[in-house]
Design goal:
By secondary structure, the protein is of the alpha/beta class. It is built from nine helices and seven strands. Strand 1, helix 1 and strand 2 form a beta-alpha-beta unit. It binds nicotinamide-adenine-dinucleotide (NAD). Nicotinamide-adenine-dinucleotide binds next to helix 1 and helix 4.
Length: about 270
């Protein structure tokens, strides 16, 4: 029921931390991978690691905000693999300019940075979903999983643009799930995961000091996490495999929190 062997999966933002982990986990489960990155060379190491565990992966160069480059890559993937079963929209993240400084307020926010981060996190999921989702609608089968964030469910101070754009992306997840089921049948499912706090490239400096201790921000998060720790990146992979598999075949339009209880906790 949970098996995903021989499925064809596309992963956007494949050179990132969370993407690398699920790519290896999928490879171990027998999934064949089409890995997307703006720079193909950024995927060399990951592909070697996947080959070393007997997996199968191919790199493709594309910008998730560029519909034409995605259309070209879709044709290449369909010619290389024959179909598209799973799309993981992982590319995304916060941008330094879109976060309000410690001593600043919303009135210091850079509108340009707000627009850029919105483009990345909202349109960066919408455009690949439309391009690759079309192939799924023609097959009448497929799974899309978007990577949202806890910053939607609970307000994270200073992080304005990232939170608003992930919130819009969650709404789009539900919207597209309904659209696909109503117009193309139950075979194409669209869901999202909402990771809590996982230390990676983007947030390491924000959450930990050089000596490994937590920053004030890191301490605040742990205080609000009933499990009293940050997540391990690998702890997302079981949920993604579940949503990708037939075990979840009646599940569409949900956002699954993976957060050590953060979203359930009032802090009291
Ligand atoms: N790490 C966490 O704690 C955490 C928590 C919640 C949500 N998330 C979300 O999970 C996803 C992955 O996070 P991560 O920590 O692995 O980040 P990461 O920075 O390691 O990976 C993001 C990837 O997206 C790629 N990317 C950015 N813009 C792109 C574009 N225009 N075209 C193609 N690729 C582009 C980057 O090159 C990078 O490889 C993001 O969407 C992030 O918002 C992460």
């Amino acid at each position: 029921m949970f098996g995903i062997k021989d499925k064809i999966a596309i992963i956007t933002g494949a050179s990132g931390s969370l993407a690398g982990s699920i790519a290896k986990s999928f490879a171990e489960a027998g999934v064949k991978l089409a890995l997307l990155s703006r720079k193909e060379s950024s995927l060399t190491e990951l592909i070697e690691e996947i080959n070393a565990i007997g997996g199968s992966a191919k790199a493709y160069e594309a910008d998730i905000l560029d519909e034409k480059s995605l259309e070209t890559v879709k044709d290449q993937i369909l010619s290389d693999f024959g179909r598209i079963d799973i799309l993981l929209n992982i590319a995304g993240g916060n941008l330094p300019g879109a976060t309000i400084g410690v001593d600043k307020t919303i009135f210091d926010l850079s509108i340009d940075a707000f627009k850029t981060v919105t483009d990345l996190n909202l349109n960066g999921t919408v455009i690949p979903s439309i391009v690759f989702g079309k192939a799924m609608s023609e097959q009448k089968e497929g799974v899309i999983i978007n990577y949202s964030s806890m910053a939607v469910e609970r307000v994270i101070t200073r992080v304005a643009g990232y939170s608003a754009s992930k919130a819009a992306m969650e709404n789009f997840t539900r919207w597209m799930a309904v659209e696909m089921a109503l117009k193309f049948g139950e075979g194409v499912r669209v869901n999202a995961i909402a990771p809590g706090f996982f230390i990676g490239k983007q947030n390491r400096a924000l959450l930990t000091n050089e000596d490994g201790s937590y920053t004030q921000r890191g301490e605040d998060i742990i205080r609000n996490t009933p499990m009293k720790r940050f997540g391990e990146v690998e702890e997302l992979n079981g949920a993604v495999q579940f949503l990708s598999s037939d075990a979840a075949k009646f599940i569409t339009g949900i956002v699954l929190p993976i957060d050590g209880g953060f979203s359930a906790f009032s802090g009291v």
